[in-house]
Amino acid sequence: MKKVVATGCTLALLAGFGFVMAQEGMPPMPKPEPEHKWLDQFAGEWECDIEMTMDPSKPATKSKGTESMARFGDFWMVFDVKAEMMGMPFKGHGQIGYDPAKKKYCMTWIDTMGPNVIVSWGSVDATGKALVMEYDMDCDGKMTSMKDTSTIVDKDTRTMTSQMKTPDGKWFQHMSIKYKRKK
Questions:
Q1: DSSP 117
Q2: How far is 67 from 79, CA to CA, in rounded Å?
Q3: What is the pLDDT of residues 42-91, one digit of tens each?
């Protein structure tokens, strides 16, 4: 019963808010852009094959994981990752959307391996298949430039590579993930 009353109150509040906006000449709510719709390709349940190394002279470690990504309203996608990284259980959570004012995609990310929030900005490449996101990340007390590229291979397959800029200014790919849609 409390849920019904709370839901009714929430709906009445939202209806009243919409009425006040209409009466006071407030601008209309924004509409989703094609860039928001582009993100729908990532929606679903995915199996992940992960390869990762922090040292280019050593072989990559391999692990498996899962990702669940879903639409959050018209503008955002939210996603959760579960895997094993470096022999430890790993969880990550993110959200991604498109900022029409900046004409850039924006993503935030948190995970169980660090205390920092990552905010990245990027765009879809000329092929329309790859989203390239760039950010700076604290690696052992030093800010390091990073670049993640998520590529749509087909409706059931995608990849992601993560690169870090080394002190000599070169890019080093430290992680790759192959995603297959769960059937």
A1: -
A2: 7
A3: 999 999 999 998 888 888 899 999 999 999 999 999 999 999 887 889 99
CB-CB contact of 121 with 135 (8 Å): yes
Q: Which residues contact 159 (CB under 8 A, 6 or more apart)?
A: 150, 151, 153, 176, 177, 178, 179
SS3 7: helix
Is the pTM higher than 0.85? The answer reads no
Sign of CA dihedral 100, 102, 105, 108: negative
Cα 22 from Cα 18, distance rounded (Å): 6
Alpha helices in the chain (DSSP H): 2-23, 34-38
Q: What is the Rg, in whole angstroms, of the alpha carbon atoms belonging to the chain?
A: 20
Interval 95-143: pLDDT, tens? 999 999 999 999 999 999 989 899 999 999 999 999 999 999 988 788 8
CA angle 40/100/69 to nearest 5° reads 25
Instruction: Say if residue 68 is in the same domain as residue 131.
Output: yes
- Domain boundaries, position 39: 34-181
Q: Own/partner pairs for 134-137, CB < 8 Å, 24+ apart?
A: 137/164
24 in the same domain as 38: no
The total of structural domains in the chain comes to: 2
